[in-house]
Amino acid sequence: xxxxxxxxxxxxxxxxxxxxxxxxxxxxxxxxxxxxxxxxxxxxxxxxxxxxxxxxxxxxxxxxxxxxxxxxxxxxxxxxxxxxxxxxxxxxxxxxxxxxxxxxxxxxxxxxxxxxxxxxxxxxxxxxxxxxxxxxxxxxxxxxxxxxxxxxxxxxxxxxxxxxxxxxxxxxxxxxxxxxxxxxxxxxxxxxxxxxxxxxxxxxxxxxxxxxxxxxxxxxxxxxxxxxxxxxxxxxxxxxxxxxxxxxxxxxxxxxxxxxxxxxxxxxxxxxxxxxxxxxxxxxxxxxxxxxxxxxxxxxxxxxxxxxxxxxxxxxxxxxxxxxxxxxxxxxxxxxxxxxxxxxxxxxxxxxxxxxxxxxxxxxxxxxxxxxxxxxxxxxxxxxxxxxxxxxxxxxxx
Length: 398
Fold this sequence. Notes:
Blueprint: E1 2-7, H1 15-29, E2 33-37, H2 42-45, H3 61-79, E3 84-89, H4 95-105, E4 109-113, H5 120-124, H6 131-140, H7 143-146, E5 155-158, H8 161-169, E6 177-179, H9 194-201, E7 208-215, H10 221-234, E8 239-248, H11 250-260, E9 266-269, H12 274-280, E10 283-286, H13 299-307, E11 311-314, H14 317-322, E12 330-332, H15 337-349, H16 351-368, H17 371-393
Parallel strand pairs: 1-2, 1-3, 3-4, 4-5, 5-6, 7-8, 7-10, 8-9, 10-11, 11-12
Helix pairs in contact: 1-17, 3-4, 9-12, 10-11, 10-15, 12-13
């Protein structure tokens, strides 16, 4: 089968691009012909260390719109030479783009939604803290914009039950919505021993709590910094490692560190092999404020589960679903540093609890995130889409 995988995502450091890369590899391993169309050079996407080439997100809105337009044109051109197009878009608010490509190419289109719509009242309360991040998402990723679609996709793919319910509420047919958890690119992840990882990163002995990601308000890194003051009162020898992707405001993060009075216990790192950092850590903390602005099932959470490291994340509906109701990670109230600190200290002080979390992660990765199984589910969706398209185009019989 000739498959075109496409994305309009503007950053290579994203769960959507990582999932697309992993899907391409799995499909090629099954003998399918795969073409990837995105904002990035195809060879760059094959580089295991591609994260080293990501710099900033300073493009203004107008250039981004122009770039998206160019990518959509390339997608339409590639789709004409494919049996099926799998078009990944950020949220249901972008479904109309897939409709337009389907109309232009007359090819079966499978539409993937990376994330869900914004909870407008909740996000609006946080608007003043980071208007540059939240305002565009409030304006675009809402139910009104999402209703502007013809729903011409042969099938729609989401990561979670919450997203499926969202699509149903928007009028999508349940029978055309499939749930397939995110794929992660295991080829770029390597197993490290704890000592080897710490030596390579130059980390000291003693308890290490790690965060990796963008310094965007939605990631909650400032909540973690405030929480760490509480952690130090219980575990004075602990260290907080912040591995920054290069996106977001580093100066604002450093102000948070100074304000919390934890500077002597904070270690700053840049872009790195996330599996290496996770192997070196005693606890990974990913305290999202919201599950908007990234994959619905954040790739970093799944990568932490792959690495097998005690994890704390936020008690948000999508993350509760991803972690099996708190089986593969402890869940802290979003935006609450004291609760976050309490959960981190539990994992640092209770080795039996930490080991049970890691064992639950191992079982979940085998049962729910098996890459061969997930790729096969996509193949079945593509085959159904192609068969359905052929039956629609078949001449009427007397």
